[in-house]
Amino acid sequence: MGWSSWNHFGEHVTDADVRSAAAALIRTGMKDAGYLYVNVDDTWQGTRDARGVLHPNDRFPDMKALADYIHSKGLKFGIYSSPGAKTCAGYEGSFGHEEQDARMYAAWGVDFLKYDLCSFEDNMRKAQSEHPQDPLAGVKLMIAAYQKMGDALRSSGRPMVYSLCQYGIADPWKWGAAVGASMWRTTDDIDDSYGRITMIGFSQAGLSKYAGPGHWNDPDMLEIGNGKMTEEEYKAHMSLWVLLAAPLIAGNNLSQMSETDRRILANPEVIAIDQDSLGRQGERLAQSGDLDVWTKPLNGDRVAIGFFNRSWESRDAVLDLGDIGFSDGADLRDVWERRDLGHHQGAFATTIPSHGVRLFVVSRSRASVTDRGSDERPKQK
Ligand code: GLA
Q1: Which of 166, 226, 243, 360 fits a 20 to 30 Å CA distance from 91?
Q2: 33-90 pLDDT, tens per residue?
Q3: Cα–Cα distances in angstroms (integers) from residue 378 to residues 219, 371, 375, in the given order
Q4: Ligand 1, atom nearest to 41 Cα
Q5: Coil vs helix vs strand at 164
Q6: 40 CA distance to ligand 1 centroid (A)?
Q7: Catalytic residues
Q8: What is the chain's percent helix, strand, coil content, to nearest 5?
Q9: Which of 39, 43, 116, 183 has the most ligand 1 atoms within 8 A of CB, as the residue to mutate?
Q10: Please, which residues have CB within 8 angstroms of residue 111's CB and are 6 or more apart in sequence?
Q11: With a threshold of 0.85, does the pTM exceed it?
Q12: Ligand 1 pocket member 99 (CB < 6 A)
C-alpha cells in the first residue's frame, strides 16, 4: 500500500510534490491506515554522465535527501525505470545500466522499483524479426530483461519491492515471481473513468490462483480522488480492488484530498478485506446482465462479497447464502455502512445503486452455532 505520483501529477511531478504527499499521508491518517510507500513514477530522470551514472533532472535536486525525508516520516521510498533505453515518457531508461542503477537505488535508500516495459518493446520486435522461426523470441528477451534487473536488485544488498509493469504481456503471473517480482501489472493503463475501472477490474476473473502472500496481481494504481468519477463509482473502484487483493497505490493529490475521498481510501474495514491474512484474491461468483458478484475468502471462515451494478438504474439482487458455503445461515455486515445486519438464512436480498456497490462480510453465524449446540444436547428423558 502506498501512493504514486503518476495518476495525478504525471510528467510535472517535483520533489516538493512528493514531500507534500509524504507529509499528507501522515496528516490525513493514510499512513495509519497502511499506506507506506511513496513512489516517484516516470519523469524524475535527467542524463547520464561520462561514467554512466544517471542523475535526476532539475525537478529532483537530491534523491538521497528525498529518500531520507520520506524515511524520517516512517515511510518507504519508491522509484521508476524501464528495461528499455527510454521510459514511456521518453526519459532515460536502464538498458545497459541495470546493475549500476540498482546499486545507485540501494545507495539512495530506495525500497521499491516499478520497471516499465515501454521502449523495450522495440528490442522485442527486433529480436522477433531476427528469429522468425521462434514465435517466443521477443517474449524470451523481455523475461530475460526483467530477470536481469531482478538479479541486479538482489545483488544490490538492499531489499526492494520489485514491481513489473508490462501490461500483462505473456502472462507475467506465470513468471513474475521467478524473476524476483512481488507484483505485476495485469493490464494496460487505468484512467479516471468508470468504464475503465470496471473493464480492468472485471477482466481479472480467473487470475486468483496466481496471487498470494508476496506475489500479487496488480490491476494498476487507484484513481480515487482524481475528480472524474462519482462517490458511488469510487466506492465501486475501491471495493473491486480490495476484493482482488490488489496492491493499493493511491494516485490522487493527497495534499488536497476531500473528506469523502479520504473516507473511501482510508476506510479500515474495507482495507482489512484487501490486507486479509489469508492473502487470497477474490473471484467472480456470478454475472448477469449489468450485475457482477465477486467473493473473497477471509480468515476466520469469513467471506467478503461485493455486488456491482453497471447499469444506469439501481438494481435488486438476491444471494443464496448456501451458494457461498453458509447453508446454516450467517451473520452479515455492511462494510461501507459499518452496520451489522444480523443473522440471515437462505436468500438475502439487496439493492445496488447505479454504478455502485454493496460490500458485505459474511461470517459463520454465532446464532446458528448456538442453535446447533442446543440440538446436540442429549434429549431429556
Ligand atoms: C506507463 C505505465 C504507467 C506510467 C507511465 C509513465 O504508461 O503503465 O503506469 O508509469 O508509463 O510514463
Answers
A1: 226
A2: 999 999 999 999 999 999 999 999 999 999 999 999 999 999 999 999 999 999 999 9
A3: 54, 14, 8
A4: 10
A5: strand
A6: 11
A7: 116, 189
A8: 35, 25, 40
A9: 116
A10: 37, 76, 77, 78, 158, 159, 160, 161
A11: yes
A12: no
